Amino acid sequence: MREAVQNSIPSRLYKDPKNQQINLHFEELVNASPVAIYTCDANGYIAYYNPAAVTLWGREPKIGVDLWCGSWKIYYPDGKPMPLDSCPMARTLKEGKAFEAGEITIERPDHTFRNLLVFPKPIFDDRNKIIGAHNTLVDVTDQKYGEEKQAILSAIVESSDDAIISKTLEGIITSWNAGAEKIFGYTEKEIIGKHISTLIPLSLRAEEDVIIGNIRSGRKVDHFQTVRVHKSGRELQISLTVSPVKDGSGNIIGASKIARDVSESLAAEKKIRQSAERLQILNNIGKVISEKLDVQSILQHVTDATTQITGAAFGAFFYNKIDERGESYTLFTLSGAPREAFEKFGMPRNTAVFEPTFSGKGVMRVADIRLDPRYGHNKPNHGMPEGHLPVVSYLAIPVISSSGTVIGGLFFGHPEAGVFTEEHEDLVSSISSQAAIALDNSKLFEDVKALSAKKDEFIALASHELKTPLTSIKGYLQVLQRTERDHMGKVFITKTLNQVEKLNDLVTDLLDISRIEAGKLALEKVTFNLVDLVLEVVENLNYTHQSHHILFDSGNAVMIHADRQRIEQVLINLLTNAVKYSPHANQVWVNLQPSENNVTVKVKDQGIGLTTEQQKHIFTRFYRAEGAFNIAGLGLGLYLTREIVERHQGCIGVSSEAGKGSEFYFTIPLN
Ligand code: ADP
Q1: Which atom from ligand 1 is nearest to the alpha carbon of 636?
Q2: Domains 2-141 and 526-669 in one fold
Q3: Among 65, 99, 162, 181, which has the minimal tally of Cβ within 10 Å of its Cβ?
């Protein structure tokens, strides 16, 4: 290598013996230089290169063989391959002129790339003839990478939507990106050199000391939510991240801040939360409205929910009722204020402010009622009476029934102006129309309840009034039956007595019903043998109902503690039904099944039976299945039977098939 280098030193330097010493120094210098240097002869063959050139090329060229350049491959700065004979050295030799700072990229045999600045220059002899050229190659790869990195970082900072700001430890702003300008409104020129407190609201200035304190001790402040001020004075919700900036030796010299305007996302979050809350309220109110039938709780729920939804200080529902003085006197429900806050005031409905609501003209939403032309004309108060809760924002919505009647109005107040929005108006209007339907329903329900109460009252009165004369008639007939001698007379009296007996049974059932409704069906419990009772009833019925034979296979005694007369009534009801509803059969079965805790009595017939749907209703008052219409009855027996069984903590049921027969059963606890 050394030999090759010596051979390649331009001959001019060697020819001059005076310069030999200098030449040696020169050779030392070039070989030790960290900068790559090489020369070519006039034909372009490499004549000399120093060790730095070998390192840079990643290969060693052959002296006198390699042409123009020692690089493995060469590229233009834009990445296109550069033919070897177009390289700067080739051009210098061909054109006989120097190239200053030409830029090329070389590829080494190991496929690594370097960016170079090249400085080829021709060498002339004494007669100005080109005898070769030298080239200096400066490796600028790291510098170029640094520049690129810097450019990328700057582009990122500039294109960021976040504000990226740097400041000194004293709080002086030193850099400001486009995002910062967009968020805070200041241009870079306006703000650089100013103190960071320009952006901090007065009340939060102390925050900066805490932040700088953290930065000085090398700690980062992460996603800190706070408020900053826009150039216009408007406050911004900001999420802040502040990190220390260090110099090359690791000293903290300032801070970089990334601020994100979260006002919109916070507002959106708030809106979503509010919508969810509203949905929840609407859902609840819908549920209450569809489930409840009493006016008071519907109105209270509606008033509470609408007051909450509108953010009103208080809300009230006033019924559209007027007293003799023309005042709507009933404050019906109230939310957000004690009842006493209103009770002392009448509710003048004829004033211009209230009239539109009570006459159903529509919604009244006023940002400041004191400024409304309809306000303050009425004596004696000319506005809000003294002691009235302060109302500035006002919202009133009529509640109108499906028939068009104005049931009343929902009124909301707030001591600040402009609280109620169009959205509130829409929400309350839709709730109020739902409420109106619910109130209509509840009124219907109240009417039905009142009618039903009247009917019960009538049944109680009528059955009571009928019972007394019937008892007398029955008594006299029984006396007559005993004393009558004439055969025909006796027959007629007996027939009459049977009919009176039936009538008496019906009246007794009616009386029992009214007792049940009034909660007055008393039980007189005794301990007795159920087998004896069933035998007794079966015997009587077999005697009176000769069309059927009631079969009962009596077993051991079953002692129960119950109202004997009522259990007898249950047995008679089930057995007479079994007979009555099996007109084409002639047998009925009774059966008793004691278990450890209960005794079950089953009554089975082969009669008309019941469909599944009919079975669901037969224990309700006055229900009669379709197939029973040509058989006498009122539909009361099974209702009474179930009441009696359940009052004994027992249960009753039926299994039946239409056209095949039924089996009714009831269970009474043994203790
Ligand atoms: P009533 O017999 O006076 O109509 P109940 O309350 O005793 O009143 O019975 C209610 C209805 O149940 C009857 O109208 C009838 O339709 C049906 N029902 C009761 N018992 C039977 C039965 N054993 N078989 C078929 N249907 C019956």
Answers
A1: 6
A2: no
A3: 65
